[in-house]
Specification:
Blueprint: H1 22-38, E1 45-49, H2 57-74, H3 78-92, E2 94-107, E3 113-124, E4 130-133, E5 145-153, H4 154-162, H5 181-189, E6 213-223, E7 226-233, E8 245-249, E9 259-263, H6 276-302, E10 305-308, E11 334-337, H7 343-360, H8 379-389, H9 391-419, E12 426-428, E13 437-439, E14 448-452, H10 455-477, H11 479-488, H12 495-507, H13 512-515, H14 521-536, H15 546-549, H16 558-565
Antiparallel strand pairs: 1-14, 2-3, 2-9, 4-5, 5-6, 6-7, 7-8, 10-11, 12-13
Length: about 575
């Protein structure tokens, strides 16, 4: 159904055998909407400091966010990877992602290596090559073994071998790898041959390599103190080695595997469940049967059956049904049988099936942007209906954010802090209102909480911020009475913390450092003078001095009075 090919039909037609990939289009609409929901703009993730009241927390959080955004935009293909994850989720009922490290060498103009940079990587994992045991556990961290198959070219393995990362192998002892069935089927469906099916032409030198590929499996095994990684090679025979050959063993233990996994329609004890495509494929078969039946009925109406009297035909070979045909016969010997017009019934059946496919995939006219009948005119009511119509897509986005995207954000940040050299500098371009930055890994260390904030979370934050704004307005009207009552109880309100919390819940930590800042010394002195003048003018606070009649300003010789008021400072 995904490839758009006729695999099975119920209605056999001799004339029409069309196949419309409507199921694929339904999945793609779901993928596009869900991807745009988790990536609504450039502000798709947020950094929260552990101490949100600290004065420099906002600036530091902005530095961490700028570095991560630089990595996402320059090194990682965020939108393409997210779309791959959603496709796997809807086609195969689960999606997985893996984070890692990439070392990029830097060369000068003469081609000499001068330095190297370390960057985090992530990629969507092929669902057919990822194995977990036991298979009754849905949480990947509760598994005992996690393995991923690779067909690594020998040239790439040779580079790793020269770097000392893997053990040395004799290339002549590499046998032809056994390609997995799922890969062979997929290549056959595309009309492609196997990668190692090469033809040696006459006159070419014989290769010194037994095979162009190394059948390799990357295994993560759980130990009491963590997870250890192994590389196994399956197509190597020789040097008294047994199959498989362990060519790499990690020296350090990992706290968890580098994979993040989300399962659709998760059930206890079941890792492989049904996906959306399981629901759409039978409807796609039904739709194409209805299309072919409708076209056949339309053809019957367009080219009706002709009843011919053979006794009145002069030449039988002239009886061909086509435009401007000449039949050599008596016109009285021909009668056309008018078949009933079934076009309307066929179109109605196709519309019903398409409606079922839209409902199964979470699409409806309101989500498509088309107004429906009896739609209310109030904006709040329309917004509520739109949110309800996107419930299925929002559920998919919520699962992806909670299970993969937010944890992967933490994995990428931890990878940067752990493996990035101290001398490596992140050069972040600036804008008109934001200066350029040069950050090192020391600027990113700290207690940070990272979260993927797509449109779903942003809408929730906006609603919460509006409620907090209304509460703040009500609190401001009753502030004098509330503060006086709390003062008698020995309490006070920390308005700085309140403003920071309101800003954080509504807009995140971006710009929080510019919201509240320390006063300059001269501003503190002026503020102290104003408070003292106001206190002197209050009843019971002593006779009003000259300053109460006319406010003292620096231009009127206020420097001497300020010195007297501040105790000689």
């Amino acid at each position: 159904a995904w490839l758009g090919r006729h695999q099975r039909v119920m209605f056999k037609s001799e004339m029409f055998s069309h196949y419309i990939p409507a199921a694929r289009r339904s999945v793609e609409r779901h993928v596009i909407r869900a991807s745009q929901m988790v990536l609504p703009s450039a502000e798709f993730f947020e950094v929260y400091p552990g101490d949100e009241i600290a004065s420099d927390a906002g600036k530091s959080a902005e530095s961490v966010r700028a570095a991560l955004f630089h990595v996402f935009t320059k090194r990682l293909k965020v939108y393409a990877t997210v779309r791959q994850l959603f496709r796997c989720y809807l086609l195969y009922s689960f999606a997985a992602i893996k984070t890692g490290v990439e070392v990029v060498p830097l060369y000068d103009d003469a081609g000499k290596k001068v330095d190297e940079h370390v960057w985090p990587t992530w990629r969507a994992v092929d669902p057919f090559v990822l194995y977990r045991w036991p298979e009754t556990v849905s949480d990947i961290e509760r598994c005992e073994i996690v393995a991923e198959d690779h067909m690594m070219p020998w040239t790439q393995y040779e580079k790793l071998q020269d770097m000392g990362i893997v053990e040395k192998l004799n290339p002549k002892n590499l046998s032809k790898p056994e390609w997995p069935t799922h890969l062979m089927r997929r290549l056959q469906d595309q009309g492609l041959s196997m990668p190692d099916d090469t033809v040696v032409r006459e006159g070419e030198e014989k290769k010194e390599v037994g095979s162009d590929f190394v059948a390799l499996t990357e295994v993560y095994a759980k130990e009491p103190n963590g997870w250890r990684m192994y590389w196994l090679v399956w197509n190597y025979l020789g040097d008294k080695r047994e199959t498989p050959s362990v060519v790499r063993t990690s020296k350090r233990l990992r706290p968890r595997p580098p994979y993040r996994l989300v399962t659709a329609r998760e059930l206890p004890g079941q890792m492989y469940t049904t996906a959306m495509m399981d629901d759409l494929e039978p409807l796609n078969v039904l739709l194409n049967d209805q299309v072919n039946m409708t076209l056949e009925g339309q053809a019957m109406s367009f080219s009706p059956i002709a009843a011919v009297d053979p006794d009145k035909v002069t030449r039988a070979d002239t009886l061909v049904f086509r435009p401007r045909a000449k039949w050599l016969m008596d016109p009285e010997g021909v009668k056309f049988l008018q078949a009933p017009d079934t076009m309307r019934a066929g179109v109605m059946g196709m519309q019903v099936t398409m409606g079922l496919m839209d409902s199964f995939s979470g699409s409806n006219p309101l989500a498509e942007g088309s107004p429906t009948r009896n739609l209310p005119k109030a904006g709040f009511a329309v917004s509520s209906l739109l949110n309800l119509s996107l419930a299925d897509i929002r559920d998919t986005a919520q699962m992806m954010e909670d299970e993969i995207l937010t944890p992967s954000l933490h994995d990428i940040f931890q990878t940067m802090v752990e493996f990035t050299p101290a001398k490596q500098v992140f050069k972040i371009a600036g804008t008109q209102n934001w200066p350029a930055q040069r950050l090192t890994i020391a600027d990113l260390e700290g207690d940070w909480s990272l979260r993927w904030v797509g449109s779903l979370q942003s809408q929730d934050y906006q609603v919460k911020a509006q409620r907090m704004m209304a509460a703040l307005q009500g609190l401001g009207k009753m502030a004098p009475y509330i503060m006086s009552d709390m003062a008698r109880r020995g309490k006070r309100i920390n308005f700085e913390a309140l403003l920071r919390r309101l800003w954080r819940e509504g807009l995140g930590e971006r710009g929080a450092d510019s919201l509240v800042e320390d006063m300059k010394p001269e501003e503190q002195i002026m503020r102290a003078m104003e408070m003292l003048q106001g206190a002197q003018g209050m009843p019971g606070m002593g006779a009003p001095g000259p300053s109460s009649a006319a406010p003292v300003t620096p231009a009127q010789g206020g420097a001497m009075d300020m010195k007297a008021l501040t105790g000689g400072v």
